[in-house]
Amino acid sequence: MKKYLITGCAGFIGSNFVYYMLRKYEDILLVNLDKLTYAGNLENLKGTEGDSRHVFVQGDICDKALVTELFQKYDFDYVINFAAESHVDRSIANPEIFVETNVLGTVTLLQCAKEAWYNTEARTWKDGTKYLQVSTDEVYGALGTEGYFMETTPLNPHSPYSSSKASADHFVQAFHDTYGMPINITRCSNNYGPYQFPEKLIPLMIHNVKQHKPLPVYGDGMQIRDWLYVEDHCKAIDMVVNGGKIGEVYNVGAHNERPNILIVKTVIEQLRNRLRDDSITEDLIRHVEDRLGHDRRYGIDPTKIKNDLGWYPETPFERGIVLTIDWYLQNEEWMNHVTSGNYQKYYEAMYKGK
Ligand code: NAD
Ligand code: DAU
To answer: Are 187 and 137 in contact (CB under 8 A)?
Structure first.
């Protein structure tokens, strides 16, 4: 039985990953270490209740004593680090926590894995172990109108968020280059799907449309993101951890580039039809002040993961967006819970004066 330490899996992608892995593998242990920040939500993991293959531990990836204890208790084969502060706008408002979790937290995990898996005298690593860092296309910076991010594209991050993720990537690479640690790094494009916190574009727009609230589009709305259905990302992570060549970086993306304004218009149209509500129109759109340092375009070249591991995206955007909107319509209670309390304060502070 393979034993995984998975971090940050009460969040969006992590919780989807837990369900993906439990569906796919009978014989598996997933120990899920999550601090339960504003973005972590045990409601995301309700479907794991009573399943002994998933163990939840509330805690911080920066807590070395706790992580060491977990390694001693479970003798992990794999570490997959999803845990992060993940929202670019929050990183612009408050960069420090991004350094703590995304950089120091990653280094703590690397150190604990090294202490558990590395034989210092023989300079060998325990067989079959691997550390996988879940990174992002944002570490590459922004593209012009042409070309794609390749694994060989130099890192050139712009926001405090992407800078912290790039720094973490350098540390992961450094543990490989210096100590020979068995690692992989995945760099994925924008995910969408169930359980995404409504500070991010698609769930925020769904939430606001349903309430007939203004839809804040930053600047001209012509920034381009490359959208991937979350389950396709989960599949890629599983393939990389179980088949990726040691030391390699894999880009993950579906060649599904769209300007933000088109995404917003798609959400409007879908919800108008689904809810049979003609008052849901593009008049809800408000062009607001642009994000500082806003990257204009991201676009992933996924050739390497396709050729080397046989990964391919299974969910076209037209289907994925319907699945996503259906999920949010069917999970009103989830949305009500996450948008009550502090969410209101966050929303007012983030969009005030814009
Ligand atoms: P998220 O914000 O939804 O979830 C992050 C999770 O990490 C939360 O459950 C939170 O409680 C937990 N966490 C935060 N700080 C922690 C700490 N110090 N210790 C333990 N747990 C902590 O994020 P997400 O969108 O699911 O992203 C997951 C990972 O994937 C991140 O590393 C992110 O950089 C990366 N990524 C995200 C996307 C995307 O489009 N969302 C795309 C590519 C890569
Ligand atoms: O590219 C991968 C990254 O995608 C991940 O690494 C990040 O963790 C994830 O948050 C996401 O970053 P983005 O900044 O691209 O996602 P976000 O949903 O915040 O914004 C998507 C685009 O929509 C971006 O160009 C900003 C714009 N936007 C966003 C919000 C929240 C708006 O125009 N209005 C909004 O209200």
So the answer is: yes
